[in-house]
């Protein structure tokens, strides 16, 4: 599973205390000044994907926008961190607010655009005029011809490109963001069963058992042929990636305490030593093999001829021009639809979940559907929980700070205390906190939102060092001792927790049913005293704290999803199929664009499963494309 390298888009690499200053002066495309704007410097802040985005706008004496400084150090460096200055530069160059958000970083772009608009409003600028001002002429259209075009430069797209390029084919990769990696770059490791690294570690594990376990977990709703093909090839893919500069190691322990007794769930987690370096190495190899990689280039459509054969794609370049790529084989590896708030809310039956995934909006799946494919099983990837309105912050080494936010209160989040739903009723065995996937699944059953109920006595105990084992699964917890009552009071002040001198007052503040909450707490306290959970079977050592010494607190917690998994119908070779099980010649899908490996909302509790599928399915798609291209030459 993804651990501390989980970031909001998520999630990743180096901390990026980004301060970009753009001095462009008057636009060559629009020389008329905005005479209503008053010269000076103006500042505004908006919430981005990972935290606040601040802009400093300088207005020249003639009313033009002279420069825009953007600070977005909470945004993901390779995505939002690059999108913010790109958008600001476009606004200054064109002296216009009639600009599109940067593809792949919609949330950050919207925050930057809103903040700039607010600063300009304060300056007295004519906002309507700026929104209607003409922008620079779009770039020239371009056409290219290759053997294989790969759309998406995450783990699956990268593996597909490597597999096709090493076979000597002419390969083009297009990526809508400013860098490669996608969700795979924020993951920590790779699920594989049969590798030399595992054998050196003393574990000779069975592919057959791994396949059987996955099929049983998915209640035989996943495609057995695909599951076996992936598991059989994952080990070889680990060793293949090592040849391209991806270094792995086998963990000595697991942060997911629920997995300790099953080596298939955690020893199979081949962790990356340095994910950023791995991508540098893989793309250096692609460059050496002659692959053409185009960033800031977004898929628009898949081209299919009159015979029903896919012959390439069209895409929009960073300058607005159209890129038409004629290709013998097309591989779509654009990820899922995690950035589509309406679609994810519908899939989860709730708008209360927090999103921590890459900003893929489902464009690849939609493009495949437009040429006859269909969405088989794409669904949000539920993964851990966080406090409401948490912000991911990073330390100086680029690691995400604990618990999705920099507060010791995450120790309360990551322990099995009393959890209740929005009515005040207990709903699960809280020991699920020790399994990242099951933890989020429990939140799903109550609409993505629950409350942790504690009293002052419990918080005082945490201030001195809790008696409970604090999970470091998923985001982990910040383990510094602190004044937990003060931290909880600060959450109440921020609106992410509620407080009451009595349970009745707490219920009223949080909108719970007072009788339900009182009955729940009374029953829970009885079980704590007896040391036995007769409702859900929580371990006796987890029944460490009763709830009876006010003040009382309810901490607002939300389930989290990391983009989506599943996707369009493919066969075991990753060739796209119609709903009539007919192949679409020349078209392949991989990673979070391809379906059949998972099923339903629940993510199988095997660490590194999504990353292992991404790379392995991408490699299979690349090899299948090679076979197809060679067959039609």
UniProtKB/TrEMBL annotation:
Keyword tags: FAD, Flavoprotein, Oxidoreductase, Signal
Leader peptide range in chain numbering: 1-24
Pfam families in UniProt: FAD_binding_2, FMN_bind
Cofactor: FMN; FAD
E.C. no: 1.3.99.33
InterPro entries noted in UniProt: FAD-dep_OxRdtase_2_FAD-bd, FAD-oxidoreductase_2, FAD/NAD-bd_sf, FMN-bd, Succ_DH/fumarate_Rdtase_cat_sf
Keyword Oxidoreductase (UniProt): yes
Reactions listed under catalytic activity: dihydrourocanate + A = urocanate + AH2
Annotated FMN-binding domain residues: 48-123
EC primary class: oxidoreductase
Protein's recorded name: Urocanate reductase
Organism encoding this protein: Clostridium hominis
